[in-house]
Amino acid sequence: MLGADSSLGRDELLRLLYGGRASLEVAFGATLLGLAIALLLGASAGFLGGILDTVVSRLQEITMALPVLLLVIALAATGGERLNQVAVGELIPPGVVTLVVVLGLFSWFYPARIIRAVALGLRSREFVEAARSLGSSETRIIRVHVLPHLAGPLAVYAAFIFAQTILLEAGLSYLGLGIQPPTPSWGNMLAVGAADYLSQPWLILWPGLAVFVTCLAVGAVGEQLRRRYSPEEPVR
């Protein structure tokens, strides 16, 4: 339906679907890992404060000051060979774990700052003081009273991190540092199609459109979530 690739005549639609599975697995995994780190560090730093807050804040500032793309490329190039061996049959193809770990480790600091700010405002609220006066531990207060209030910011940032991770996966796979052929992904499909873009332009068109439409849809969801949880801007 969408034509065939330029090397072995494989069906482009089938490769697009399989490539989408690999790209979305990377996006889901890296988003979950990044948000888990952000939730753990941000909520703990904002609610407990003290030395932990200082350490987490300095760690955020150091990480934000680093050239993330260059570090991602360096880590994928050096540690990717070992992590690429981690695979679960056809469910998790080689290369997915590498990108999940590398991209997840560099996607936590922005949501961690938001989560810290929310937790910082919640720790002096009346219901938190009431729970503390009843003898609840700090861990229980965070789990029962603080985490439900973080659902909104987490949902918003999850959508934007998801879209960003899809773009980073496509870029790294295009550069040959992500998922390697013969396992298809949208990024390495773009790299393969770049060699024949004049004679077979659809080899770039279809994976490029897949990345564009997916990021556009996820970005629209993130924008609606932002409006939904923004008190000054009603949902339209």
Keywords summarizing the entry:
236 residues, mainly alpha, MetI-like fold, disordered C terminus
Characterization of the model:
This protein is 72% helix and 0% strand. The protein has 236 residues and is mainly α. The protein has a single domain, classed as MetI-like (MetI-like fold), CATH 1.10.3720.10. Helix 1 packs parallel to helix 5, helix 6 runs antiparallel to helix 7 and helix 8 runs antiparallel to helix 10. It starts with 11 loop residues before the first helix and ends in an 8-residue tail after the last helix. The C terminus is likely disordered.
How would the blueprint of this fold be written?
Elements: H1 12-48, H2 50-65, H3 68-83, H4 96-105, H5 109-122, H6 126-133, H7 138-146, H8 151-174, H9 186-193, H10 202-228
Helix pairs in contact: 1-2, 1-4, 1-5, 1-8, 2-5, 3-4, 6-7, 8-9, 8-10, 9-10
